[in-house]
Amino acid sequence: MLLTGIVFIMGMVNSYFTPERTRALLAGRMQGSANVMAAGLGVLTPFCSCSAVPLFIGFVQAGVPLGVTFSFLISAPMVNEVALALLLGMFGWKIALLYLSLGLTIAVVAGWVIGSLKMEAYLEDWVRNMPKVQALAGEDGMYLAQRIQGGFDAVREIVGKVWPYILAGITVGAGIHGYVPQDFMASFMGKEVWWSVPLAVLIGIPMYTNAAGVIPVVQALLAKGAALGTVLAFMMSVIALSLPEMIILRKVLKVRLIVTFVSVVATGILMVGYIFNTVL
């Protein structure tokens, strides 16, 4: 019920942020404040890794700086309404707010670092040579009734798509609850083991799931004694650094830029894991 309500509200909000309007808001802006805006728009927009290539091309054509584009592409899948709704329902507002803050910080800093490295030369040639187009915000002419209908459409599409992942995640979580010994989980995902955070990130990258599927698993891992920082690192790597997304991005990025992207984001995730394992 919580997921349905939040998806409905976000479906109405999303009607204000079409790909064209998002491009127009980000085009022509400089680094820094633009990275913050891009990461914030990523939270509000419904784009996932499957949208990475057309969005990336559109942003490049509109003149959006490379680092700003990456801030958006990191934030959009990692910090979304599904993740926040499930975290809020399962762990409360403090953990949900913590995840939101960490995800936005990683998106902003990683985008700024990539932009500062001036790696435009490592875009695929056909993308770099595409003619620039002007992105216009414009009015979409939608009425309130149409935006409300957009909310219902979002519920039908998003909840309709993610409920199998939620059930699969709960099934895996139930298996961890019932069959995996607590001592075993704590032995390689606890605070005492220094390599638990990088191991969690390495395990998460090849996995192909989304927030809906991984959050019930996260709940089970925490219940078995896994450290919060380690589990957050695992969750972020699954959502932000999935192997399928890297394969999709290979169509527009050269290998060196993909490696830089993964390295910068993974470093941020590792820092999050270690900091929270130390503090909490």
Taking Cα atoms only, what radius of gyration do you get, to the nearest Å?
Answer: 19 Å
Distance between the termini: 31 Å
Sketch the topology as an H/E string, one letter per element.
HHHHHHHHHHHHHHH
How much beta, percentage-wise?
Answer: under 5%
Write down how many β-strands occur, each being a DSSP E stretch of 2 or more residues: 0
Instruction: Write down the overall geometry.
Output: globular
Strand-pairing-aware structural class: mainly alpha
Q: Give the helix level as a range of percent.
A: over 70%
Describe the protein.
There is one protein chain. Helix content is 74%, strand content 0%. It is built from 15 helices and no strands. The model has no long low-confidence stretch (mean pLDDT 76).
Keywords:
280 residues; mainly alpha; globular
Task: Describe the secondary-structure layout.
Elements: H1 2-14, H2 19-26, H3 33-44, H4 52-61, H5 66-78, H6 81-91, H7 93-116, H8 125-128, H9 144-179, H10 182-189, H11 196-204, H12 211-223, H13 228-240, H14 243-249, H15 255-279
Helix pairs in contact: 1-6, 1-9, 3-5, 3-7, 5-7, 6-7, 6-12, 7-15, 9-12, 11-13, 12-13, 13-15
Summarize the structure.
The chain is 74% helix and 0% strand. It has helices at 2-14, 19-26, 33-44, 52-61, 66-78, 81-91, 93-116, 125-128, 144-179, 182-189, 196-204, 211-223, 228-240, 243-249, 255-279.
